[in-house]
Every structure is written in C-alpha cells, then in structure tokens.
Amino acid sequence: MKKIDIETAKQQVARSDTIRSINKLVVLNYIREYEPTSRAEIAKHTALQRSTVSSLVNSLIEEGLVKEIGIGESSGGRKPMLLELRRDEEAAIGVDITPSLTTVATANLAGEILEKISFPTPTDRNETFLAILKVLKKIKKGLKKEDIQIGISVPGVVDDVSGSITYVPFFGWENWDLKEKLSKKLGLSVLIDNDANAIALAESWFGKSEVRGVKSFITVLVSEGLGTGIFFDGQVYRGYKGAAGEFGHMTIGKQKSDTACSCGGRYCLEAFTSNKATLDRYNRLAGKKETSIDKVLKLASRGDKKALEAVFETIDFLALGISNLIVGLSPEVVVITGKITSLWHLIGDALTEKVASTIKQKIPMARITPSTLGENPTLLGAISLSLIKKFAKVG
Ligand SMILES: [Zn+2]
Q1: Which helix (H) or strand (E) covers residue 236, if one does?
Q2: Cα 53 to middle of ligand 1, angstroms
Q3: How confident is the model at residue 361 (pLDDT cuts 50, 70, 90)?
Q4: CA 9–ligand 1 middle distance (angstroms)
C-alpha cells in the first residue's frame, strides 16, 4: 500500500473533472497495445460504455492520433471498423547523447523512427548544445503540430526535479541546464533522463511482452560505462535528486581494475565490466592494441580464445554486480542491453548460472534476458521520454 501524499491527493481531487481525458487515455493505450482493434472490442475490454468509446475514439481521430483503416472480420454482428495509431506524422522527437555519437530523431506515435540524423558528440558541451539545436530547429520547421515534447537521453545523472544534468562523467560536464536552454530556444517542452532510466522506460513501452507486463525490473546497460535503470512498481525509480541506479559505481571488493571507471575510480563495477574494460582485458591477454570493442566481440563470436576469455571475465564481474542488485531489489527480470548481448548465445546461460550460484538464502532469482529494443536502445529511450506525454497521465 502506498502512503497517501496530501499534495498529490489534493491535485487529484481538483482534477476529478478530467475523467473524460483519463478515459481517452485508456482508449488510446488500448489501441496502442491491441491494434488493429474496433470500438466494440475496446468497449468490451475496458468496461467503458459503447457510446463513450465511440465519442472518445472520434476525438482521438479528430486530434490526429488514431485512424480508421477499414472493415475487419465480424465475430457475429456487424463487421467492425478497425482502428490503429496514426503513423504518418511526427509525434515524438528523441535526442540520444552518447559518448561517441549524438542522434536526433523523429518518430511516429507508435515509436517508429521517421527521420534520423547522427553526428560525433563534441567534447565541448556548448558545441554539443549548438549542434543539437541546429538539427532541432530544422526539424521544428517541418512539424505539422507543435505539441511535441523532446525527450533526451544522457549518459549521466539527471536531477529529475530541476531537469538539470548533474554530471556526465565521460565528458566531465557538470550542472548543465540543457533542458532550460533548449526549451527557451525552441518553445517546446523538454524531458531529460539518464540513459539507463530511459532504456527502462523504453522496455516498459516497446520491450517484448514478458518485460512490458512486469512491474519490477532492472535494466543493465553495458556500454562505454555501465548504467542501470530501476523500473519499480510500474515506473522508473529515481531516488533523491534522480541519482538512483548508479550501480556502475558500486565498489566491488578490494581488487583494483587496470581500467579506470568513468568517475576515475578503479574499484567500481564499471571499471571491470564496461566495453573499455573488456577491450583493455583482451589487449592485455592477447598482447594486441585493438581500439574497437566490435572487433573483440567479433573475434569472440568466431571462437578466438583470448577474446572469449576477456568477455567471460567481464561476465563474471557482471554476474557479481547483478547478483547484488537482485539481492537488494528483488526484481522479476533483469534486462541486459549493449553490444555484448550480440554474444548472448555464448554468454546468456553462463551469466544466469553465475548469478544464480551467488544468490543465497532462497532469495528469488530473477529472469535474466537480453534487450529486444534493437540496435539503438538509448534512442528508443529518448523517444519513449517524448511519447510519455501522449499516453501517460501526467502527475
Ligand atoms: Zn565509478
């Protein structure tokens, strides 16, 4: 049971006249989940009256969110008119800032990418801001509607109250008011979140059904760093000042890593499990000077012994970290994201077994599964941040 917060309750009382808008969201979300569907199906499964559903669907069509796509098969009575989300218009803008590339993309209401522009992320944050602004200005000019929110994913800590980026360790950027700057210049609302949190949101929106339907799961992003997002009780858990889920900086033991964490530390989980850590380990083991993790992963997939050894050592440390997360937070599922998952057929069972073997006291084991968000999970995360406004009850 959740404790009632008086301030929140007060707002909800004041909003009791918005039942229609909440019901409209129920209908919109039903269509999103079960499209193509019909007014009769919606009424049957949402317990809303048929006449209410018809009126709400008509509003959604007028607002350009839903469209009729033709007559479907009858399940007894009159043949139904089928409905689905509109896909031909921009409904979301996502900005995905990663240590290597920044991608700005537009997507439709179903989260499908319509247009995408990428450029190397400048190390100077003002240059990054100007480069993003330039692309967004161009996109804004072509928009048919202006009620679009910009979602931004960053590899760092974001204060969810102020929206200010507290720290991006890879670049050493601190206290960056990117949200305020962009919304002032563009007149569009902006929502920023940490990359692993954004991925957690994307998994809850676009992930495979066994993750989407789960109330508590954790995402682990293995990339230049190691990020974790906590999806707890149906929403992303942010903690005080939005800094929850920084498990990459969890100290593990007294062993010192040869690779530095993005924070400079040598004892953080990230120092042992980031792509850089795997790359450094491979170079040490094989006496090579590879600069690309892609190369090492490819070698491992072809059975190269040193590459496999480097990858499996990463898996050992990753298992240790994940085991601690399961013991502390008891998620139902742990979703692993990042290039390393391309080797899932080799590493999946080993990771699960290693985690299970370290969980004691009959604490329930979580399912460990690779992400199904595809090649660009953080971009989908940014787009999810943008789409929230269309589908979720605000507040
Ligand atoms: Zn660290």
Answers
A1: strand 235-236
A2: 51
A3: confident
A4: 39
CATH 1.10.10.10 fits 6-85, yes or no: yes
Cβ within 8 Å of residue 302, ≥6 positions away: none
User: Which of 20-24, 132-136, 326-330 shows the lowest mean pLDDT across its residues?
Assistant: 20-24
Residue 395 has pLDDT above 50, yes or no: no
Same fold, 92-200+378-391 and 215-372: yes
Distance between Cα 174 and ligand 1 center (Å):
16
End-to-end Cα separation, the chain, in angstroms: 19
Cis peptide before 364 (omega within 30 of 0): no
**pTM recorded for the entire structure:** 0.86
Q: How far is the CA of 125 from the centre of ligand 1 (A)?
A: 21
Determine the Cα–Cα distance for residues 7 and 220; give it in Å rounded to an integer: 34
Report the separation in Å between the CA atom of 220 and the middle of ligand 1, taken as the mean of its atom positions. 15
In the numeric block, which tokens belong to residue 331? 């998620």
Over residues 162-184, the pLDDT tens digits come to 889 999 988 999 999 999 999 99
C-alpha 223 to ligand 1 mean position (Å): 14
Task: For residue 146, name the pLDDT band (cuts at 50, 70, 90).
Answer: confident
Q: Where would I find the H helices in the chain?
A: 6-14, 19-34, 39-46, 50-62, 125-142, 178-186, 195-206, 209-212, 269-273, 275-286, 293-301, 305-329, 344-358, 377-391
The CATH topology of domain 92-200+378-391 is: Nucleotidyltransferase; domain 5 (3.30.420)
Sorted by where each begins, the domain ranges of the chain are: 6-85, 92-200+378-391, 215-372
* Of the listed ranges 76-80, 91-95, 160-164, 298-302, the one predicted with least confidence: 76-80
CA of 338 to the centre of ligand 1 (A): 18
User: Could you tell me the distance, in angstroms and rounded to a whole number, from the CA of residue 168 to the centre of ligand 1?
Assistant: 12
Confidence check: pLDDT of 74 > 80 = no
- Tell me if residue 214 falls in helix, strand or coil: coil
**pLDDT mean over 252-260:** 88
Burial of 358 (0-12, 13-18, 19+ CB in 10 A): middle
Ion ligand 1: residues, Cβ under 5 Å: 249, 261, 263, 265, 268
- How many angstroms does the Cα of residue 261 sit away from the middle of ligand 1? 5
Determine the average pLDDT of the residues in 71-87: 85
Report how far residue 41's alpha carbon sits from residue 272's, in angstroms, rounded to the nearest whole number: 51
